[in-house]
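FIELD: query
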Amino acid sequence: MSVIKLKKTYPVSKEKLWAYLIEDELLSSWCMPSKGFELRRDCEFKFEMPSSIFWDGKFHNTVTGFRPYGFLTYECVMRRPAIRTTVKWTLTEENGETTLELEHSGFKSKDWLTRIMLFRGWKKMLNRHLYSKLV
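FIELD: result
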């Protein structure tokens, strides 16, 4: 299995950054349109994008764990193509800055193209979209 790992430090508190991970409106502003997120275990929510011939445009997610201002994990399921992965966000604050680590795991060898596309997407979202919202 392959894993996407990314790490980015932002000049904000972990409380501010945390809000961008758990509030639908803020999450939608930098990531993907988010619907139905609640900070509770087993919460089911979706990311919805325009579909294409390669995928249906939906990520069906279920919160599997969290510690406020510390970490958030959720199972991420794509139905077309059929892929089940896990997304984990970890926040660490030091000297007034917060480091956000993303670990997107569970890709099988046949999912290599999806993993590459998601790696590029996550990198762009963390380095450009989220950064521009926070600073």
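FIELD: remark
Helices lie at 14-22, 24-30, 112-134.
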